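Our consortium's second objective concerns turning raw sequence data into structural hypotheses that experimental partners can test. To show how far this objective has progressed, the report includes one record in full. It was chosen at random from the queue rather than selected for favorable results. The single chain below, 405 residues long, was entered without modification.
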Amino acid sequence: MASTIRVFTLIFSLFCFLGAAFKSSSQNQPIKLSEEAQISVITFGPYQGELWSAFGHNGIRVFDPLLDMDWMYDWGRFDFEQTNFFWNFARGKMLYSIGRTQKYPDVKSYYIKQNRSLKEQVLNLSQAENQAFFNSLEHNNLPENRTYLYNYVYDNCATKIRDIIQEMVPTATLDLSFKVPKKSVRDLMDDYLSDQPWGDFIIDVALAHPIDNEASANTYLFLPDYVHLALEGGTIENIVDTLPLIKDSIAINVMKNEKRTQSTFDPFNTFVLLFFIVGFITNQNFKNKKRTHWIDVLLFSIVGLFGWWFVFLWGATSHLSMYNWNLLWALPIHLPVIFFLNQPKWRKALSRAYRFIAVLNLCLLLFWALIPQPLHMALIPLILTLVLRSFYISYDLNKAPQASV
């Protein structure tokens, strides 16, 4: 009896092993698309509810009705659980990856609920080209091939669409006639950030001179909308004829107009308010012949932190933040120098230093248009605040020692 049980156990184990091997083998075989299959580029319009969605998104849809397949691939995935995620994010060394969803209709419904435009462009490919394209997507989606070093201008979810199309359809020519002379990457970003005043401000001061050179037509393709335009007028060359790259272009959803209310406390208004508050305090200080020390510590500590942040972005990251002219107003030395204002032995030296800082900021305003890197307009009231308070600190330190409040 025992030997019979062992024989049945052995046979059962053998069948389990063969079944698992067969399943594994079948999973490793590429899916054979039917003649009805089509591959499309999906362009999702901008969404102003989140800063990272303000530029839109792209994906690639693989649709085969005979196989009941409706999948979408995109290169916009990242994992909060990846090693040193926040440190890599700060240094501009984020690992993004391709991802695949097998429920494209659910993705479509999600974006439509967000009131985002959806456009689909069916690529004009043969069955063999569709199969090769799909195989490439699956190959890219393997764990060992999935990740890439993200760059928000030169290597992102939109440029990956451009790259794989140029790789898989080498005879394709994209239509790049949309290029505008002298338009920079900063200008292109600004086109999408009118409803994101604080996001626009942070991006403007953090990203520096490298994004102010004239953008090439190919560089425009870091934005999903321009990928759509480049494909729409694209062509495919063959031995006989020139064919359109896009077989069918479909507007799946048109964004409905929404009334957007701008926040009162955008950067410009906030810094204007700061100017009047500091101006009022400075006027009271002048009348009372005293200096409110805490306002200086608060103001110049924040400005100094901005300066150290710019230095970090320039020297320790891969962000496009080299040669940042914002360091002319955000001097890192403000922190910790501001804490030495009440030291008697430093009074004369610091009086001259803050007079120089006031003149430097004044010159920055006077020669604003000559600076290679355009500075954000909201900085005008902030720099005026620094000029006002720096002159007063210099004046106060040049007098005989007195009380601070």
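The partners drew two points from this record. DSSP finds 13 helices and ten strands in the chain. The CA atoms of residues 353 and 394 lie 8 Å apart. Both points have been shared with the crystallography group to help prioritize constructs.
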